[in-house]
Task: structure prediction
Amino acid sequence: MKNIVIGRFVPGKGFLYRMDPRTKIISLVLLMASAFVIRNFTAMFMAIGFMALLLVAGRINIFRVLSGLRPLMYLLAFTFIFQLLFNTQGDLVVAWTLHYSPLNILMVTALVMLWFFTKRHVKFKFFFFLATLVGAVALVANLRLGPAFATGTLDIYESALTTGFFIVMRLMIIVTLSTVLTLTTKPTDLNLGLESVMSPLKVFRIRTEEMAMIISISLRYIPTLLDEANKIMLAQASRGVDFSEGKFKAKIMQIVSLLVPMFIISFKRSDELANAMEARSFVPGQPRTRLHQLTWGLADTAALVVSLLALTAVITTRVVM
Amino acid sequence: MAIKFNRVDFKYKGDDKKGYLALSNISLSIQGEGEFITLIGETGSGKTTLVQHMNALLVANSGSVDIYGIKVEKQAVKKKKIRLNPIRKKVGLVFQFPEYQLFEETVLKDITFGPKNFGVPEAEAIETAQRVIRIVGLDESYLDRSPFNLSGGEKKRVSIAGILAMEPDILILDEPTSGLDPMGRNALLKVFYDIHEKLNKTVIIITHDMNTVYEYAKRVLVMRDSYLVYDGDPVDLFTTKNIENWNLDVPDILNLMHRMEQDLGITLTSRPRSAAALTNALEEVLR
Ligand SMILES: Nc1ncnc2c1ncn2[C@@H]1O[C@H](COP(=O)(O)OP(=O)(O)OP(=O)(O)O)[C@@H](O)[C@H]1O
Ligand SMILES: [Mg+2]
Result:
């Protein structure tokens, strides 16, 4: 639970912390757009290098960001495999004949058993799982043990590999960038920044202050609610709920015993928050003064220029090449 | 020995790498029966963290906790070598905040939730629920109500009933009387004391009320800044230790005795621990 870092602010030093939140938000949007436009490998590797540079220069713990990516792993893997199976454009890269014979199947079963019984001792469970999967496929494709009762084919096309790679990388870049934003920006600053960035929308009579408030409160409450969930799990565990094992019916019961207090507590929290805001004379839509004024520095201009350059560079390469 | 802490350190994982050290080098043992212990200490000193180790909700980073012969250790728990549920049946813990515990539609279902998890048949669990709801000072009409529409004090009582229904050997209560009216507080303390007296069970209570400590406790544990700084007799604690250093204060009765001695020159021969005992002692001296 604690691994989820999206939305969490972690105090620290480094230039990212000193930057104007407006710059960070605009740069985030520009860089995300760039990530989407990128279509060639050199640019993608440069982008990855740029991200690494950003993390190092910003003195951000890379492991923290990586562990934030962990919940995304399954989504990424699924997307990649989906691409492999169903994208049939470009040259044929791999054309394997899958060989289903009793002996082959036995070996795959053995492999799966091995995975099942050793997985709890392995540190990187997810990669272990992937390796097992690839191993199983490779076994069926390359070993011909005994007569096969059926054969299949596994065709992987070039475009499947590249598209899969780009999608995965893009998602990773986007999540990393947003993590960096919330990691280095105080919720109050984030709120201020969002409000200021969105203020042009006022022309369309959209209440930007409120939207900014909603966004920043939601972001702020993700980690709080996770902490609450943790506490509820402890309280239920003390009454004999075993969250790690149990039959299907027991599992459902466990989830209910977690979700109901979660909802109740969230409602109560939001009610209390609303009251607390009202007690301090918060009136939606009223103009307010600020204790902290945002200040625009040289670093901010530089960051914006860099992000803009990145976007234009990516767009031009895409148009030209 | 039912619970034994061996040099336990515990760190909460925090935002920075270091984490937050909540328990440092704790060693203590608690008998499975016949103890009435209060655990005191300033806010944030680690009391809740300590008791959550006693039924293996938290596991020490270094050191180990023996609970009914089961050695609860980081490695063993990680590899799921030990089953923790039997521990939780034996050591019942009432949480500081009842909101985290209540979730069923009715109070009855909520109270029977624990016993049913430990395999008690439905009918028996319901019978127990009807019994414990009265013990905690509510009547049976509450059993059909939703736990979420109760007042804070009523919720607290229901959450206590939920643990009492599990009939644990060791009963641990994390600030059970906070948010209760004075009458209700005294009645509940009496209930816990009765459980201890009549059934000879071990009861551990976390409290900020020095009067409770002085009147009931046979043994006091004092936490201070993640360390266990005192483990012993309450009279000794309040008369010989420099308790201001630990942000504690003196029970009313001791204050009163001190005043009587200074202003009225009355010195008691015994050490009364309750109002009734004080009157008796006074009577003896004045006569
Ligand atoms: N889930 C958590 N994550 C990080 N730190 C925590 C967590 N829970 C408690 N702490 C910290 O550990 C320390 C000890 O907390 P604990 O809850 O044990 O205190 P306590 O003695 O029970 O206080 P109180 O009298 O207020 O209930 C506190 O300083 C607290 O900030
Ligand atoms: Mg506490």
In short: Chain B touches chain A at residues 13, 15-17, 52, 55, 57-58, 79-80, 84-85, 88-89, 92-93, 95, 97, 99-104, 113-114, 117-118, 148, 162-163, 166 (CB under 8 Å). Chain B has a mean pLDDT of 89. Residues B 47-48, 96, 174 surround magnesium ion (ligand 2) (CB under 6 Å). The beta strands of chain B are 3-12, 20-30, 36-41, 62-67, 70-72, 91-94, 170-174, 202-206, 219-224, 227-232.
